[in-house]
Structure formats: C-alpha cells, structure tokens
Amino acid sequence: MTAAPPVPPTLLSAAQRAALHHVRTRAAAGHGAALTRIEAALGGPVDVEALVAPIRDHARVTLNFHPDRFVAGGPTVAESLARDGRYRSQYETGLSNGSRTAHPGGARDGWEERLFGGAYHRGATRGERPKYGALDLYGHPDGASPRFGSCHVRLRPEVGARATYCHGDSHLGPADIGTIDAFSPVLAGLLAESPNAVEAVGRLPYTVIGHEPGRKLDEYVEAQVHGDIDLARDAEALVVDPSFRGTDTGRLLAVTARRCGIALEWHAGFVLAPDEVDAEFRGAVMVPFAARVCRSYGRDGILDAEVLGRAAASVVREPGAWARWGTRDEVLQYVKQLWHVLVRFGRTDRWAA
After folding, report:
1. What's the chain's Rg over C-alpha atoms?
2. Alpha-carbon gap, residue 140 to 153, rounded angstroms
3. Three-state SS for 308?
4. What's the angle, vertex CA 242, arms to CA 352 and CA 238, rounded to 5?
5. For 194-216, what is each residue's pLDDT tens digit?
6. Which residues pair with 163 in a beta bridge?
7. Are 60 and 265 in contact (CB under 8 A)?
C-alpha cells in the first residue's frame, strides 16, 4: 500500500467513500499475488512503491468527451460545461460513447454494482455516480482514451486520490482493480499486457505533452472518478480538437477555460477522406456511411471530429433523413464507429502548424 494524498471528506458522499473503500480493500487483499505477477513481468524483485509513486504524483486522469453532443434536456456538452463548469456523469447527461446503458437496471448499472460492492445501490443519486476517464501514463496529446471523445479534460494529479482504476474496460468485469494507494493489481495487469509500460512510468513527470497521438482505443487503464468534478478546482486544462477552431463549440470551450482559470490547449486532430476509410476495421458499411456524412457536412470532402458531430446532431434532430441506415440508435452507433476509424487511421497533417 502506498500513501495517497488525503481526500477532504466534504468532497465525497457516503456512497462514494464506500465505493473507494470496497475497491481499496479488494486490491489490498490481492497485493501479494499482484507482486508475484509484477516480478514475473519484469524478471525479478521490484520496489512497487518506487514504481507507483510517480504515477500517484504525476500521471493525469483524462476525461475524453465529444463537446458537441446533446445532453439530456437539450444543451450540448460544451454548453453544459460553460453553464457551471461541472463535468457530469453519464447518468446525468444521458450520453455515452461506450455502452448506452447508464440507467437503473441497465448493463452499466449492473457492472457498477459488482465493481463497487453495491455502494451506489443503496439510495445514491444519479449525480453521485462516478465519472469515467483513463490514466494517461504516456502524455498523449489526444488523451488516454480518445475512443470516448475528441476533446478531454486533464485533471490535476491530486484528483487521482479519489479515483478507482481497472486494467481494461469496466464492462468486462476486470479482476485487476485498485486505488492509487492500492495500485499493485492494476500495475500487474498493465505490465502483463505491456512490460515496456515501466519505461513510460520512468519518464514521469512529462514536462511537455507529446506531439504524436496515442490513438488508444482499447488498451488503457480506466479510471472512475468519485465525487463532483469542478473544472476550476479539479482540472488543469481543456484539450480541444482543432476542428472546433472558429466554431461556436470551440468558443464555448475557450470561454469555459478562461472562466475556470485553466489552460486551453489544442491537439493535432484527425482527418480522413472517405476513400481512405478502412473497410474491415469497423465493417464495410463504414465506407458508404463516411461518404454520406462527407457529402452533407464535410469541408473539402474531409472527415474530422466537428463533421461527425454535425452528423450526430442531424441524426438526433431529423432521424428520418437517415432512415435508410437504420434506427436512430443504430445510426448513432455508426457515427461512434466512424469516430473509431478516424482515431485509428486519421492523418494529422491538415492541422500541422
């Protein structure tokens, strides 16, 4: 067990404290087995505290999101952030770029009950539910999990003390879970998948965010942040896809960053022409679907995050215009999958300085 910074008790509700306690207890019970796995991955005895300390002190949790998607009640994510500077959970927004099951009785509700020992199933409100992100060990400019959005909030390192972590996605029921002060099972899972991750840990802290995108679609340490996320208190930067430069969404994010006193940063973005879309990665339908999106919204016939956002808005507002592609939810799934294609194969040269 490593020493984590204290969390002010007023930041957490009883349910949130119980969730952290449940995960910490499970992780501490598995420390011995995790240590054996870590030593096997690295080929000998190791000082786990020396490995975890730079993660605890310097690695950031990033919360990737699409700023132009509509939340429950009508505003976009960017408008919601601008209104009060709070980052909300999927239970509050009705949005998900993963499983669309954040509601009582849904699949996410079930796996949260197992992961957190039922802590959120004894009268907790929707607003108490955790916010999902990932732990950025590599300093990637597109965030630790761009699968879930084109932009991200980069949190301050102290927020990690009230997060739980798992290696892999929580919907898979991962065995390797922990907190920052009981992190060895998560580290064991990470090193089993990628022993060279220890080199990234050794390079912490990152004094400069890298230039090459990580394109992390599947390999990441998921983080669940417990308690409210107030950008002014908890974030150090809003990192924005450059396709939003000069747009209402981009201006809202800039205003939010300024009001909250945090940095506004831009990463390199992703662009792709429809004829460059891979027909196998997310299925052959991606090729004609990309062409359809670009015909309606593409600037110079090019896909980017802002173009996909306008397509998503159209699907919500005028689903009949997309009826040949399926139901509203089916078409939104295609939008999500096309975003994955863009992250995986997109070029960054259009936005080069």
Report:
1. 20
2. 13
3. helix
4. 125
5. 998 999 998 898 766 667 899 99
6. 225
7. no
Cis peptide before 205, with omega less than 30 degrees from 0? yes
The pLDDT of residue 210: 65
Closest by CA to 243, choosing from 61, 66, 80, 75, is: 66
Q: Residue 62 forms beta bridges with which residues?
A: 134, 154
- Tell me which residue of 271, 321, 327 sits closest to 300, measured CA to CA: 271
Residue at token pair 């956002």: 309
Amino acid at position 285, single letter: V
The single-letter code of the amino acid at 308 is: L
In sequence order, the 6+-apart residues with CB closer than 8 A to the CB of 19 are 116, 117, 119, 120, 130, 164, 226
Q: What is the residue type of 249?
A: T
Closest CA to 169 of 250, 74, 241, 98: 98
CA 86 to chain centre: 16
pTM above 0.70, yes or no: yes
CA angle 156, 217, 168 (to 5 degrees): 75
